[in-house]
Design brief:
2 domains; six-stranded mixed beta sheet; Trna Endonuclease, Chain: A, domain 1; 190 residues; alpha/beta; 7 helices
Length: 190
């Protein structure tokens, strides 16, 4: 009898899949990328877009998935679910149709592999500018606001004020570009 598939099995298989894609050769691939202090993206990929992968192994449950769907959908350019077979049906009912869906399976020798079931679509209408701005550190937000002349009175304010100023000062497409560019340039992630 095969052992039950765990998160680490799916994570390893998905990272291998992502690292072998040509478009990810120079991408930044991050584990446990925090969104608004509420959820963590299991695997995030920065490569001109911000893409997230939520992993659900056979030993996981789906209790947190609705909250994860809400935050991923409010922030990421592309959202994906990677799910073990035992959760496929229930999980498919919980994710919007613009999410990509992958299934994680085990071969007869116990090796985990990933198969794409549905391509993700660009998340054009669900992004919340304020939540997107929260991906930036206060200093990063102030630097961007200064560069574009929106910095009057922000230096002494809270980071929440800076995020709000970012959300109101830039169009959503421009804000997305600014946030992605800043994240891709970040060297110290902690």
């Amino acid at each position: 009898m095969q052992e039950k598939m765990h998160d680490s099995d799916i994570r390893q298989a998905m990272r291998l899949t992502l690292e072998h894609r040509k478009e990810n050769q120079s991408a930044l691939i991050l584990d446990e990328f925090a969104l608004c202090g509420e959820v963590r993206v299991d695997i995030a990929v920065l490569n001109g877009h911000l893409t997230g992968y939520e992993l659900k192994s056979a030993s996981d449950n789906l209790k947190r998935l609705p909250k994860q769907v809400d935050y991923y959908s409010a922030i990421l350019d592309y959202c994906n679910l990677v799910v073990a077979e035992n959760h496929l049906q229930s999980a498919m009912e919980m994710v919007p149709d613009f999410w990509g869906v992958y299934i994680a399976k085990q071969s007869s020798n116990g090796r985990t592999f990933i198969r794409k079931l549905r391509n993700p679509k660009s998340n054009k209408t669900h992004v919340d500018p304020y939540l997107l701005a929260q991906l930036l550190w206060k200093a990063e937000a102030i630097d961007i606001l200064t560069k574009y002349g929106y910095d009057q009175g922000v230096r002494s304010k809270t980071r929440q004020f800076c995020w709000d100023k970012m959300a109101e000062s830039f169009s959503l497409p421009h804000l997305r570009e600014l946030v992605r560019t800043q994240l891709e340039a970040r060297t110290n992630w902690r």
